[in-house]
Structures are given as structure tokens and as C-alpha cells.
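hiii, so i know i said id send this last week but things got crazy w the move. better late than never?? heres the sequnce for the chain we talked about at the cafe, plus the structure i predicted for it. fair warning i was half asleep when i ran it
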Amino acid sequence: MSEQEQAAAATDVPDAEPAESEQPQGFGAPTLAAALEALVLIADEPVPVTALAEVTNTPVAVVETELNRLAEQYTEQGRGFALRQSGGGWRLYTRDTCADAVTRWVKDGQRARLSQAAMETLAIIAYKQPITRARIASVRGVNVDGVVRTLLARGLVAEVGVEPTSQASLYSTTELFLERMGIADLESLPDIAPLLPDIDDAVDLFDSMNA
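okay and structure toks below
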């Protein structure tokens, strides 16, 4: 092949596709609003704006503006939930105007028996409170997000603050728990050893791994 033919062939070679890491990933959803709604919906704790910005590949200022717009939109539309900033992040909450309906739902749920998973999780919280979901999961060996939500809805546990190091929510039992157990205080709980013999070792191992 002559030099002229080689030069002509070279011009026909298409430009190389940019590396996958160089291609923008976008919001990960049809719109930024949709992405933010999905993320705060699945979150069990307030999500920081910086985390939402990182996941959606969007500047923090743009994300914050969109969150405020969504919050105003939900209020104007009279939705049963509100998007609010709390605990250093954003989260969905039920509105006070829907408190009666929520209360009825929770009270009706009290009639149903707790699952084995819920009972185990409740026991861990009762004996090691205040405790984070991560520590509970380390003891049970499975994800406990759904179970903790059930216990919160039943009013048996409540968020009582955040852990200083991880900023994760801490959970403790409530007065309703004591009432259901028929005891006056936590000191009246039976010995933990026969119920969860490995709980202390499991929590200590978790703490040492995260020290």
C-alpha cells in the first residue's frame, strides 16, 4: 500500500470511544427530582445533601435547590408526607394532619404478632440500648432495616439520638415496650444469657472491627 493509500485509510478510522469512567453517569434516574425522591424514600436516616449530590453527579447547590422545590411542591399539593431537613440531612415524614390515620394503622398493627426476626431484633435493642442498626445487624447477621421500621411503627422502639463517631441513629425501647412486657423498668428484664448467649461477644467484635 502506498503512503497516500495509508493516509487515506487512517482518516477512515472512527474516533475511539471515551473510556467508561470518562462518560457522565447522569442522575441514575429520568430526572434529578425522581432520583432524589427515590433516594430519600429508601433512606432510614436523614440523607446529607453532599451524599445525594455524589450519587446523582450533581452540584450540591443544584441538589439543595431541587430539594427545597420538592418540599414546597408537596406542601402545595397537600400530600400526606413532607420532605424536611433534619439531623444534618433530608428525609420524608408523615404530616401532622394525617396523624389520626397513622395512629389507627399503628394500633391495628399491634394486634398482629411480631415475627421471630422482629422479636430477636427487639431483644437485642432492649439489652444493648442505645444501639445502631449496624450493630444490630452484626449480631443477627442479616439486614435489619425492615424489621427496625416495623418496631418503630409499632411504637416499641424509638430513635433517641445519633452515635457521635458514625452519626448513625441510635435506637432504644419505649414505655410501650415496658408496658407490653409487664415490667416497670429495664432492670426488671430477665437474664440475657439464656436468650442471646452470644450477643455481648458479637457486639464487642463489631466494636473492635470499627474502632
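btw The longest strand covers residues 81-86. thought thatd interest u
miss u guys!!
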